[in-house]
């Protein structure tokens, strides 16, 4: 259990300190996500929103772990994750394409619920 907590702390420290996204976007994306959730709830109801959110978060977590594994804990370059002299550059088209695909899949699956 303590190893899991150490890994979680490592990821949270990285998320707070990385320069992969502009600082303003790190804050804005929280409000974007809350707005999308609220709109989805209003349009499609509680159950579909929970299904959408569950699927989207699960798939996004999969993307996170994929990048974490392939970059060896954010220390080596892979796809659009570039490490230069120990510093990371902004992520790009592959990461955001995966997030958009995650959102589309979550919408499609949540809409299949009767």
List keywords for this structure.
114 residues; mainly alpha; single chain; 4% strand
Summarize the SSE layout with pairings.
Elements: H1 2-17, H2 23-44, H3 46-70, E1 83-84, E2 87-88, H4 93-111
Antiparallel strand pairs: 1-2
Helix pairs in contact: 2-3, 3-4
What structural class do helix, strand and pairing data support? mainly alpha
Strand content: under 5%
N-to-C span: 39 Å
Kindly give the count of domains: 1
Radius of gyration: 16 Å
Assembly annotation: single chain
Number of H/I helices: 4
Q: How would you sum up this structure in a few lines?
A:
The protein is mostly helical. It is 72% helix and 4% strand.
Question: Can you offer a commentary on this structure?
Answer:
With 114 residues, the protein is mainly alpha-helical. A two-stranded antiparallel sheet has the order 1-2. The termini are far apart. The chain is elongated and about 50 Å long. Helices cover 72% and strands 4% of the residues. The chain has one domain (19-111). α2 packs antiparallel against α3 (46-70) and α3 packs antiparallel against α4. The longest helix has 25 residues, at 46-70. It is built from four helices and two strands; from the N terminus they run αααββα.
